[in-house]
Amino acid sequence: xxxxxxxxxxxxxxxxxxxxxxxxxxxxxxxxxxxxxxxxxxxxxxxxxxxxxxxxxxxxxxxxxxxxxxxxxxxxxxxxxxxxxxxxxxxxxxxxxxxxxxxxxxxxxxxxxxxxxxxxxxxxxxxxxxxxxxxxxxxxxxxxxxxxxxxxxxxxxxxxxxxxxxxxxxxxxxxxxxxxxxxxxxxxxxxxxxxxxxxxxxxxxxxxxxxxxxxxxxxxxxxxxxxxxxxxxxxxxxxxxxxxxxxxxxxxxxxxxxxxxxxxxxxxxxxxxxxxxxxxxxxxxxxxxxxxxxxxxxxxxxxxxxxxxxxxxxxx
Length: 316
Ligand SMILES: NC(=O)C1=CN([C@@H]2O[C@H](COP(=O)(O)OP(=O)(O)OC[C@H]3O[C@@H](n4cnc5c(N)ncnc54)[C@H](O)[C@@H]3O)[C@@H](O)[C@H]2O)C=CC1
Ligand SMILES: [Mg+2]
Known about the structure:
Structural class: alpha+beta
Largest sheet: 8 strands, mixed
CATH superfamily of the domain at 142-281: Nucleoside Triphosphate Pyrophosphohydrolase
Bound molecules: 1,4-dihydronicotinamide adenine dinucleotide, magnesium ion
Shape: elongated
Number of helices: 5
Strand content: 35-45%
């Protein structure tokens, strides 16, 4: 074995393979204390960083040092590293594995690592090292679907579709799954356009349904949000892949029909109430506000109130 670095460097790691040896190191990272795996003989460097909770995050390289490392050597090296992290009081290890290095998943799992999540090109495994049960947060728990109730106040008609791939042909509002980073209102407007060809504008949020272990959500929970939209065009050109039928239906007819889903029926009644009594009675409107994180903004949805609520300081 070659001489090991001393001082702040760790004393022992070792991933040994035909051509690569990796040495786990310890150093001051630019943003605080960090951990680092140092390769030998030109193999690519692997880094780990400490997070603010006392966990260590290791990102395996997409290519390079690990290409020639076999699973057994990786497992020995990881085991030594875990022992070191444990002795240093680290509370957890986050191991990010690019999809092309997936052969290291099984050896990590045999050391107690579990999947935390996977994206299209990588998976993230975790190992809890702290006391008691793991306090690491889970990954995404819900999918978000958004529908648009496009209501034309002039004709009292609302836009409805029937899905093509359903066992029962029920009327519902056009909608679909939100994309990462997409605002709720933008999803509603986009899905309505894609499914029906109708252009529209976001007005308010009407209802949120939360349903668990949804079969269409890969066993996760489903948030189904219905927005009120105002139409900007009226000529229907619906998506043949997703929809069987699409039409402008009188709101009274949608309220009365049995050929609809319970939630569509309920929201149709909500719309009718808003139409009669004023939409301010049913609308959750949106306001964009600056987040505590510099440069970021968020959308806040709540019932519209008289302006003086913004400056109220107490109950008097
Ligand atoms: N109660 C209601 O009125 C209904 C509410 N929803 C809600 O709408 C949201 C999802 O909307 P969607 O219109 O379903 O999403 P979407 O508009 O994003 O469309 C999903 C597309 O993926 C396709 N697809 C789904 N699973 C597939 C698979 N395994 N293989 C191949 N293609 C597949 C579908 O045919 C469809 O074309 C959810 O939040 C759900 O709860 C959906 C249907 C009815
Ligand atoms: Mg859809």
